[in-house]
Amino acid sequence: FGMPRGLRMASVFVLFALLAVAAAGAEEPSKDVLVTRAARELDLTTHLAKQTVFLTVQNTGERPLSSLLYTVETSLADKLAFIGAQTKVEEEDVELKVTPTTIAGKAAAAAYRVDLPSPLAAQQQLSLEVETVFTHAVVPYPSEITQAEKQLVQFSSNAHVFLPYPTRTQSTTVTLPSSSIESFTRVSPVSTNENEINYGPYSDLPAFSHAKILLHFENNGPFIKVASLERLIEVSHWGNVAVEEHYHITHFGAKLKGSFSRYDYQRIPTSGQSSVKSYKTMLPAAARDVYYRDEIGNISTSHLREAEDYVELELRPRFPLFGGWQTRYYIGYNVPSYEYLYHSGSRYMLRMRFVDHAFDEQIIESVTVRVVLPEGARNIALKPPYPVTERPTELRQTYLDTVGRPVVVITKNNVVEQHIQDFELYYDFETILLLQEPLLVVAALYLFFLLVIAIVRMDFTITKDAALLAKQQASVLVESILQAHDRRSTLITGYQDAIATYKQSKDNKAFKASKRRLDEGYRSSTEDITSKSKELQGTDSEATAKVNELQKKSAELKTILEESCILAERVVSERIGKQQYLEQDKSNQQRINRLQQDIDSLVQTLGM
């Protein structure tokens, strides 16, 4: 569209050059490979699509084969979370190395090269098993349901095993959560048996054979995933490894349409079938000091059970999780370092799991693992069990650090249960560095005590004023007396509250207990004031006189309160009439008010 001829020619040349570069790195399936039998088992009982393909491969050529190619169809290529292959050698399972690659002309499909344990000779056969796990391939349909509705899902795939080689015979068995099947694509021959759909057998299929199928069925399983996981591992050479994991859990099933009714949820067993009430996290067998918290604080709705090989932590969020809902929390624990930390001289190796078992059929969209090593660790080398992304090393400042502790940062996306494997982290650390922190503490305490000794031996006063010192001592004593009086004033209010409560409840035993407690507090405060008054007498005679007057008024007030208590007991026991009680109580209250005014005036003059 208006592009100059020379520019169009240049663009075509660049396009062909890019295609040539891509083709140069692509592999071509060998024409000497024939798949004599392919049996696929497709497990759709959960939110994961787990596929196991059993292959019998024959080398029809004249030269031995050292590897095979395996492909994943285009519609599932971006959902692949795990792929693994194994075969049997002398009745023992042997894991095979699987490496990503590309196939010429099939750039959209995911291709992998499977290295054989030994070259497959001409005209010989080999049986192997390829396991793949797909996330987000089982999709809720409809995408929104009410609390009372069941959850339906869809899954789209291929009725044929998508292989880069011709197949003599193959079949597929699809296992569903239940026999409740809304619809499925029929590619003859096909049959059903309760919760299974059997496709095939199909004979003499070419390479990359494809027949699209769409399954629509009921699945009320817990569609939860970890949207993000922050895992912190702090290594201490003093015998402990601390682990803390921050989880962001989301329910990616059919979203809840309408409001949530807790009444229906508890009353009707089938209400909210696809919701999640609780799940179990498996921790290492040596885990101790386990905690489970969120932003609010400790979550008590959890149970810990110790088994022989693991520690089971049953987690129950503060609310059930429906489609579209989410929760955040963190758990932590300690493990002894001797089970995970090994060394030869000054070379150490940490071997731990990359992730723990968060819940059954787990999906972790994003994992960030931070390993905090001791200060002074160097020559750090990571050996992961599978491809991960290693970020630049960070520094973490903690107590008694000087330059900071190195932090190894590892990330990975789309993690499933098959990724629960150990990583190895190597580093050099000199044992003498363990003395750094104790020596820092000793030096700090030594300097602190030297400073204290120097300060207490110094005299910062210019002249000594005995009168000023006496005034300061008197001020401190008066402040202590006022504080004790405040406590006593609170108890006076307590007497009045106890009398009022007693008249309403008529509980004589409770009233006696309350009065006994108030009497003890009142006596303690009065004795404290008397003691301080004796000390005050030698420094400030005027304040002492006011305190003595305060004690006298308070004693009168206490006498009236005792009379009020006796009067309340008499009216409750009906030994006096209500009218007589009201008249005497009014008189007592007037006397109390007058004494309170006198006491307040004395307190005000003391505080000036």
Feature tags:
about 600 residues; about 30% helix; elongated; 8 helices; alpha+beta
Structure characterization notes:
This protein is of the alpha+beta class and 608 residues long. The chain is built from eight helices and 31 strands. The strands form seven sheets. It has an eight-stranded mixed β-sheet, with no helix packed on it. Strands 21-24-18-17-27-30-29 form a seven-stranded mixed β-sheet, with no helix packed on it. Strand 1 (33-43) and strand 2 (49-59) form a beta hairpin. Helix 5 (466-505) packs parallel to helix 7 (541-572), helix 6 (508-536) packs antiparallel against helix 7 and helix 7 (541-572) packs antiparallel against helix 8. The N and C termini lie far apart (96 Å). The model is unreliable at 6-24 (pLDDT under 50).
Radius of gyration: 40 Å
Strand content: 35-45%
Assign a percent range to the helix content. Answer: 25-40%
- Shape label: elongated
Can you summarize the main beta sheet?
8 strands, mixed
Would you summarize the structure shown here?
With 608 residues, this protein is of the alpha+beta class.
